[in-house]
């Protein structure tokens, strides 16, 4: 769709940035905090790049005032952060750690004093280790009451100060990486267990949403999902069918449950035929149907391209795309992997029209518009972009970081977001990933996303000095002008 002029962003559009507790906080054993599954996992040799951990991370726990001051100077309208469950309830289900709550209360107070809207993510992958050991983590329904108590604690503490809440961050990623690909804790390769755990998380999500609407009637809540549109490689109807299948497998399996309260019929039937579908009781169906999110968070990095499945259209091993374990959005099994439901459905391939990042992630700003259009049209919920950004190797030269490549990436994506708004998509805001450099789960401190450079590397925490990058000042100007400088191709620049 071509426009001569784009609609302006609404005056209250929330220009923000995002982070996650384990990736920034550090202080992993201070002030009564319990251990999380990532605290244990990162300390086991071979699990992370150069054995990097979140023990210190970027020390946000001790530098929160400095970091919020940088956010305020930037002009952020929103800041999305996550709460570490084990900092608030050390064993996941017992006594509340008031010192942990106090840290987040301090952060929220600082944000609001600087007119920055806090966006609180309840769960961003760092499950309390005690719950993993006691209940087998998300592998048991017994964890749901613990999650409900954790949510009740947060809702009661912050219901008057936080309007926007995210239940789970990228459930599609942490379940597959943890229970199928063994790249995240609990480091399992069992797809049946993955679907079982995913169902339990869906029940926990629905429980949290219903409790929220009871306790926080003036707030808004929804999950954040790692969404990518799916393209057929060619106009061959078999490739088109493969794309329909892949969209069900990659997106609808989660979003239909979040937004419609039921699993999509096609995928459910495939999993039942393969003997790997989760157990869904009548009570489960009632619970899932009862929970209605107020908005949907979208994390967008790229989509995927597929062709006819490898059984009907065999490919040589040398021709098969190798999806790196560093890209959790595009991992796929070998053709002969047992219990791989996608093998008969589609075959993921490279998109010949797209460039890639240094980590092999496709760069597809137009796909961002496609994603927003598709999700809004299907579910008619307001959308909040909760992640979008570029991971790169940034270099500090003469005390500065010139990350023009990040500016270009973000500007392209903000433009296509503005085009989606002009198309009619209802948007709440946009939180770039990330505000500052962070610990990248499996890639240490080499892969940087932030507007603010943090002076540390994989070998040393150095002085952890905060240094705004060129992109920091670009985003500062973008916010000040409410995106007015982002225009259609036909408008004067």
- How much strand? 5-15%
Distance between the termini: 20 Å
* Spatial strand arrangement across the major sheet: 1-2-3-4-5-7-10-11
Main sheet, how many strands, which sense, barrel? 8 strands, parallel, barrel
**Second rung of CATH, namely the architecture:** Alpha-Beta Barrel
Tally of DSSP β-strands = 13
Topology summary:
Elements: E1 14-18, H1 21-24, H2 37-41, H3 64-74, E2 78-82, H4 85-88, H5 98-113, E3 117-123, H6 129-135, H7 143-158, E4 164-169, H8 171-179, H9 191-215, E5 220-226, E6 230-232, H10 237-260, H11 265-274, H12 282-290, E7 296-299, E8 304-307, E9 347-349, H13 365-379, E10 383-387, H14 404-423, E11 427-433, E12 452-454, E13 466-468, H15 470-480
Parallel strand pairs: 1-2, 1-11, 2-3, 3-4, 4-5, 5-7, 6-8, 7-10, 10-11
Antiparallel strand pairs: 8-9, 12-13
Helix pairs in contact: 7-9, 8-9, 9-12, 13-14
Note the main attributes of this structure.
493 residues, alpha/beta, 13 strands, 3-stranded mixed β-sheet, Glyco_hydro_1_AS, 38% helix, TIM Barrel, 8-stranded parallel barrel
């Amino acid at each position: 769709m071509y426009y001569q002029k784009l609609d302006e962003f609404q005056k209250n559009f929330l220009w923000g940035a995002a982070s996650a507790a384990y990736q920034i906080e550090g202080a992993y054993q201070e002030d009564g905090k319990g251990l999380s599954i990532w605290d244990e996992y990162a300390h086991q040799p071979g699990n992370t790049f150069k054995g990097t951990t979140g023990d210190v991370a970027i020390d946000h726990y001790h530098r929160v005032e400095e970091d919020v001051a940088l956010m305020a100077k930037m002009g952020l309208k929103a800041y999305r952060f996550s709460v570490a469950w084990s900092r608030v309830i050390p064993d996941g289900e017992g006594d509340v750690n008031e010192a942990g709550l106090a840290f987040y209360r301090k952060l929220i107070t600082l944000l609001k004093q600087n007119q920055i809207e806090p966006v609180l993510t309840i769960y961003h992958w760092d499950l309390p280790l005690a719950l993993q050991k006691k209940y087998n983590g998300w592998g048991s329904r017994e964890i749901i009451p613990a999650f409900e108590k954790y949510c009740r604690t947060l809702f009661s503490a912050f219901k008057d100060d936080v309007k926007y809440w995210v239940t789970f961050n990228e459930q599609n990623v942490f379940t597959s990486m943890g229970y199928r690909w063994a790249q995240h804790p609990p480091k399992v390769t069992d797809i049946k267990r993955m679907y079982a755990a995913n169902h339990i998380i869906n029940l926990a999500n629905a429980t949290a949403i219903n409790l929220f609407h009871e306790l926080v009637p003036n707030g808004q809540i929804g999950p954040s999902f790692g969404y990518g549109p799916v393209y057929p490689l060619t106009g061959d109807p078999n490739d088109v069918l493969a794309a329909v299948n892949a969209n069900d497998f990659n997106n609808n399996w989660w979003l239909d449950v979040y937004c419609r309260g039921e699993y999509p019929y096609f995928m459910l039937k495939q999993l039942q035929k393969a003997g790997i579908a989760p157990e869904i009781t009548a009570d489960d169906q009632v619970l899932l149907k009862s929970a209605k999110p107020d908005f949907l968070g979208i994390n967008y990095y790229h989509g995927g391209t597929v062709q006819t499945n490898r059984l009907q259209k065999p490919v040589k091993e040398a021709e098969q795309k190798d999806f790196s374990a560093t890209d959790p959005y595009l991992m796929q099994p070998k053709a002969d992997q047992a219990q791989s439901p996608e093998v008969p459905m589609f075959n993921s391939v490279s998109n010949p029209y797209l460039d890639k990042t240094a980590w092999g992630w496709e760069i597809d700003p137009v796909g961002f518009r496609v994603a927003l259009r598709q999700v809004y049209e299907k579910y008619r919920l307001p959308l909040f972009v909760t992640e979008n950004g570029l991971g790169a190797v940034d270099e500090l030269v003469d005390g500065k970081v010139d990350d023009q490549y990040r500016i270009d990436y973000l500007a392209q994506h903000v433009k296509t977001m503005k085009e989606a708004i002009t198309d009619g998509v209802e948007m709440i805001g946009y939180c770039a990933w990330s505000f500052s450099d962070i610990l990248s789960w499996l890639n240490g401190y080499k892969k940087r996303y932030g507007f603010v450079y943090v002076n540390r590397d994989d070998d040393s925490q150095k002085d952890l000095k905060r240094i705004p990058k060129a992109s920091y000042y670009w985003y500062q100007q973008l916010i000040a002008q409410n995106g007015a400088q982002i225009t259609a191709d036909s408008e004067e620049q």
